[in-house]
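User: My collaborator and I are trying to settle a disagreement about how two of our proteins should look. Neither of us wants to argue from intuition anymore, so we agreed to look at predicted structures for both before our next call. Could you fold the first one, then the second, and keep them clearly separated?

Assistant: That sounds like a sensible way to settle it. I'll keep them separate. The first protein:
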Amino acid sequence: MELLMDGKKNFKDPNNIVIFFVLIFFLIYYLIFRWDSVFWAPLTPTDASHYVEIAVHLTQGEIFQSGGFPFGFPALLALSILIMGPGSFSLQFPIIICLVLCLLVLYLIAKKKIGVLNSLILVFLVGFSPYLLIYKGWVMSEIPFTLVFLFFVFLLDRNYNPYNHTANPFENICIGISVGIGCMIRSVGYVLIPILLITQLIHLFIENDYSKKKLFSLFTPYFVFALIYIPYLIIFRFWGQKYTSHTYGWWQWVYANISGYATCLTVYFPGGNYYWINSLFYTLFVCFLLYSLSVFFRKEYPIIISFFIYLIVITLWPFDQRERFILPVFPIFIYLAIRGIDHIQEVISRCFDHGNLRSRLSKVILPVICVIFIFATLYCDIPLFVNQYHIFGEHQAIIQRDEGNDIFRPYGYLNSLDTNESMELFHYIKGNMEKTSTIAFQFNGYLMMYVGKFTPCGYPITSSRDVELIPIAQKCHSDFIIIHNIDEDAIKILNSDTRYHRVFLNTIYSVYSHNILNSTDNSN
């Protein structure tokens, strides 16, 4: 908020000028390193396509439910597609902007508590986190939700922290808006409601103020949330996800989540194939976090409550999302750890005379950690990512071994969206297929974004291989099936089936028609 109010005064502040250029640096950095989009597919590859499919329908003025996903993130993608046109960049750019804004909000959370220099170090540690470089290339809702979560925590800290009390009615309204937007982006956004409630109860107990004015102020966010979210439910007819990816019992989920979340934070620390570096960073920051919790709970209770309530909820949540669900609290984890490091620096400094060499050296602990962190990312992780990009970017897809089974992973698909091969496919579809044609494809959303309306078929649910798409296409009497050539089993089945004929072929895709008369053969 400070950067948005009193514009001229704030812009002339040297500290704000510095953070402005730091954010510009990260924006350029994220725009340059776009190779990471190769990594979105190790998750369920249809998730991103669901989001894009919903977004494309929104650009056409239609409400379309796909996969039980909330509409908040697709609405953001739809806006970007309308402004920038179809393309992989229009899908990634809003995510990059959200990531840069995450760094800004994190800076605002920390600035008054650990100082400008340490806040900038916090921004660099989070901004250079290896896994964030991967996430910003995924067409997933993690980064936008993290932005909403951090903004929500920022407002909680400003309004309910007695040591940082700057409450005002406008920010109280913004809390309700952030809760509503969080629920619209991800179903786990409902966690913001218990976080808000518990924070308010503690705040009420500390302040011991039960006046009508105070109670009305505390109720305001819920009223604003209802004004936003109830119309959303009515308009979009969205009542939450209707599926689960496994059949585990609840206790099995809890056990899997506890063991998973205890270790998955390590992926956000650098080290690459040098596992000892990764383990060293993770262990150090966990120790600093525990120290910070023991010292600053009363002064940081809105932030700490947000951290722990979120962890508890995702542990009980019946989905095994690991790194995806843990992302929103990773910046909070780093902030609290730095809070601990900063306090340790002060304690060490006070043990020596002011100006003493040891006193001055104690204050470089955090900057040294930051430099090593960034160097480890640049030396250990980025070369690894770039090398994998060259491998997957060249072949566009691989067959990945997973517990003895071949699983199709179309790595680099977002990168291949703008290739000549994809453009050939899209041009062929637009020129040779009727709008009423039923097309079976793993990525309906991307196809619809480029070629316009068509009748999509379903998705494989239990596998991401194209071979699993064939029975679905047959069940819905699909006119055409689009196959990645790397899935040789699917190609073999369709080539041996006299009901299908290949009508299009390039180095990446094959298109098979169920009715030869309706298509022009372009397979040569």
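The second protein, kept apart from the first:
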Amino acid sequence: MADLERRRNEELARILHQLGWNPERLAREVNLTLPPGLAISSTAPYKWRDRGMVPRSPHDQTVCEVLGRALGIAVTYEQLWGRMGGNRGAKILSPHLLTDPWTADTAQTALREAATDAGPVRLTDLFRGADLDQAARRLTTPPPPVGGGEGALRIDPGLVGDLGLSHRSKQRLERACGGGLVLGPARAELAMVAKLLELGGYDERLGRALYGTAARFARLAGWAAYDLGHEAAAQRAFVAALRAAHLSGDLRLGVGVVGCLVVLATQSTGGRGLDARGLDAVGALAGALEAAGDALGPADRALQLGRIARAHGRRGEPAEARAAAELAFAELDGRVGAGRPGGKDFAGPDGQDFAGPDGRAGGLDRGAVVGPAEGTGAASMAADGYGQVRADLAGMVGEGHLFLGDHRRAQALLAEAVAGLGDGRARARALLMVRLADSQRRTGRHGEAAATADRARALAAGMQSERVARALRDFDVASRAGLPGEA
């Protein structure tokens, strides 16, 4: 019953007292700011002040803006509403997540939610496949105005680059050490970028760059949550990333985030490429790829097709899985045949950008050809990038064959992936080792399976990854019980 207790909003009461306003005056000022169709009743602010209720969008942010103008100093969302809690009418996205308006205001709401560690998210918050299909099509529409950008806090454009460096360092930690190490820091940085969007002064170009940065931090927080087994929280973070990516105008980033959601659907307990609410992994990502067109480079297309191949494998569709896999490798090998091993930007199977040896994201520019003046270092970087993409793709397709029970192809591809992934991809490498060990166990190669699992266990020692730990536990249980396992 504690959630039903009335809780006075002392901060709102203090500001109204300072201004000499009563709740009716606040209602009038808010209604002067909003279109007539969004007008509130004169008694609504009483509920905000005396009962701790928090208005939904756009009224919550409008109240902050109205009070900030009257005071002459910014009134932040967290200052006014943050202490009221999520169980007292606080602003949240709808249960379907992707059906709210695609505006800057809603994107900021999603980013704030993704940055907040508010406890478990209900599984009923998972969205439907039709919603994701619609979102994938929306990526091709022009992004809405960034809105805001009129705050008193001036933002140096150079901050975007600094935030990018911070993101990439945490990205490398997440890949090598597991999501548990970076979930908290990633959420904290996401909250900081969301605050810059809320309070900052920026033009259209800088605003879109900030939304792109926010999308990357939200995506990283989503992967970290997923690695810890928090699938619903991960989906909320990916929704925030998708909305922010759309506002950034970066179609490639948006398609990558759709791919992140597809990975969750493919690997979820719902099975056969569907999550518990019926998300069609194949259709969603295929639609996103078609919508993207030439915005994706060959490496990006190859990896997204690898995801489709894996999803077909999970659905028990061997012909479709092999066709998608062949197309994925053709994309990758065709790019190499043209002498362009770099692509526009390399992206890992988790949708995150590869970083070059200097820590910069983006690898090589599309169409870049290494000339004598660039030396062997650039050529080595191109080769390393291609090798990582090839290993990632082999791992995804190998998992698809494992789902289909084709252990001969699965083992060859998984072994290739394990050999090709570098030290910076320790988490993915350990997970694929366990997949390989499981396939070896199912085909009666118990000695090799035990040795492969031991290698994975040694690599994963101290790693903050529930996915890897759970895979090892499942392997141990199946080995002790002598179970054939389920592909």
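Some points you might bring to the call about the second protein. The chain has a mean pLDDT of 81. Residues 100-251 form one domain.
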